[in-house]
Design goal:
With 265 residues, the protein is of the alpha+beta class. The chain has helices spanning 31-49, 72-84, 101-111, 135-142, 150-153, 165-176, 198-212, 233-243; strands at residues 2-3, 10-11, 16-18, 26-30, 85-88, 91-97, 118-122, 125-133, 177-184, 187-196, 218-222, 225-231. Helix 2 (72-84) runs parallel beside helix 6 (165-176). The relative contact order is 0.11.
C-alpha cells in the first residue's frame, strides 16, 4: 500500500505508475491525480500560448446543460438552437448577424460562460459566432430532435415538457420566425409567422390552436420552404401569449400596433 502525496489517500501499489526516480520505484501521485495534474499543466500552457482556444476546450462547457430540461431559459436556448444552431460531429455552434448578437451571447452564457465569441465578416456583414465541442451536448440535443441536417428533419421534440413548450417556441420564433404588416388596398393587417419543416410547423400550429383557441394557422410551401402564418387579431394574440412573463426574447420581433388603415401613398 502507498499514500498518494496529492490526495492523501492510501491506495494499492498498482494504482501508481512506475517511476525509477523515486526510492520505492513509484510516482508519488496516484494515477488519477497524476493524470489530472498533467492535464491541468497542459491546459495552462496551451491557454498561455493561444488564449483564443478556450472556445474549443471541453472544460469550459456545461456538458449536462440539456440532460434535464427544467427551466424556461433552457427551453428558450433549445428553441434557438433548433432554429439557428448547427450540430456537426461533436460540435455545437450558432452564428447570427451582429444585430442579433444578444442571442449568441445568451447561448454562450448558458452553455459555456468563459468561452470567447468570434467575429466573422462575410459580404461586408458582421456575424457573431459561438462554438463548443461536447459529445454530451450533441447527444442530449439529439433527444430533442436537434441533429445534423435538422433543417430537413426537425420535428417537435417529444421529450419536451409541456410546461416549457411556450419558452421553446419563443426561442424557435426568435431564430426562424417573423412579424410583419401586410397591405390590402388601404388596409394593413398584422402577420405572425414561422419557417421550418412541415412536421414541426404542424405541431407548433396545434399548440397555438389548443392554447389560444385561434383559427388553424395557414401552412404552405414556397420554393421548397414551409411557412406558417397567423393573421389579424390572432397574430396579436400569439405575440402577447408567446412573450408573457418572460424576460428574454428579441424586442425587434414584437408588433408595434400600427394603425389598421394606412395612407394610400
Amino acid at each position: 500500500m502507498k499514500v498518494c502525496s496529492r490526495c492523501r489517500t492510501l491506495k494499492p501499489r498498482q494504482d501508481f505508475y512506475a517511476n525509477r526516480g523515486w526510492r520505492d520505484g513509484l510516482h508519488p501521485y496516484c494515477k488519477p491525480c497524476l493524470l489530472a495534474y498533467q492535464r491541468r499543466r497542459r491546459f495552462e500552457k496551451l491557454d498561455a500560448e493561444r488564449p483564443e482556444r478556450r472556445q474549443w476546450t471541453r472544460r469550459f462547457v456545461r456538458h449536462d446543460y440539456f440532460s434535464t430540461l427544467e427551466r424556461p431559459r433552457q427551453a428558450y436556448v433549445l428553441g434557438l438552437l433548433a432554429a439557428d444552431g448547427n450540430v456537426f460531429g461533436s460540435r455545437v455552434s450558432i452564428e447570427l448577424h451582429a444585430k442579433d448578437g444578444e442571442l449568441v451571447e445568451l447561448v454562450r452564457d448558458e452553455l459555456a460562460p468563459e468561452v470567447d465569441l468570434r467575429v466573422r465578416e462575410r459580404d461586408s456583414r458582421v456575424f457573431l459566432v459561438f462554438s463548443a465541442s461536447s459529445r454530451e451536448l450533441v447527444s442530449d440535443l439529439a433527444s430533442f430532435a436537434v441533429t445534423e441536417r435538422k433543417s430537413m428533419t426537425l420535428r417537435w421534440p417529444k421529450a419536451l415538457p409541456p410546461s416549457l413548450a411556450r419558452a421553446f417556441l419563443l426561442g424557435y420564433f426568435d431564430g426562424d420566425g417573423f412579424v410583419t404588416w401586410s397591405r390590402h388596398g388601404r388596409y394593413a393587417y398584422p402577420r405572425w409567422g414561422l419557417i421550418g419543416t412541415k412536421s414541426f410547423l404542424t405541431s407548433a400550429n396545434g399548440l397555438l390552436v389548443d392554447e389560444l383557441g385561434i383559427r388553424e394557422p395557414r401552412l404552405y410551401e414556397r420554393a421548397g420552404c414551409w411557412r406558417s402564418h397567423v393573421n389579424g387579431r390572432d397574430a396579436f394574440a400569439v405575440d402577447e401569449w408567446l412573450h408573457e412573463t418572460f424576460n428574454f426574447g428579441l424586442a425587434r420581433k414584437r408588433f408595434d400596433r400600427r394603425p389598421a388603415v394606412l395612407d394610400a401613398a
